[in-house]
Amino acid sequence: MIITFLSRYPGGTPWSVRISGNPSEPVARRAAIEHAARTGEALHFLSLDGMDLSEGHYEGLKLVNCSAVGVNWSGSKMAGASFDNCALSYSLFGRVKAHGAAFTTCDLSGSLWNGADATEAVFTAVNFRGVSARDLVAPRSRWSSVRTARADFRGADLAYADLRSVDDREVILAQSSMPEHIKAGTRCVAAGSSIENAQKFAAQFNPEAVA
């Protein structure tokens, strides 16, 4: 099996990967991303759906336009990794070390982040709906244009996080630590059908947030 990284090839994109032999073989896919993480090349249009990539070393990994639905990343180290326009729904990110990782225009809906470390991670234009992020450690993380409806952040550490443009309808925030001040434009609310109850819950973190 041969894995070749090319700066350009006809019909491809810069820094794409071509795998000779059986292109669907999981061993080749894992070898490709481990190599890419070590060397800094970005992987484009790679399919990782359903793979077990747990306990791996993917620091600095760059995935662009890749499909990684239902992937098990549990316990992996991916500090500084970047995911751009990737399908990551229903994947397992439990206990990952993703300090400073960046997710841009990605679908993370239904994924599991329980106990993950996303300190200073950046989530931009991401679908985070229905995510389980209990005990997530994400202080100083940045969230911009993120949809978090029905996400579960119970016990999460979001201290000093920038949450100014989060769509947080029905978000569960019980026992979570939040920024010192809920910033303008952010609605940090608890799960529930009534805005009134959600506002009362938000007041636990910042009494001045609710008139």
Automatic annotation (TrEMBL):
Gene3D superfamilies: E3 ubiquitin-protein ligase SopA. This is Pentapeptide repeat protein. It comes from Pseudorhodoferax soli.
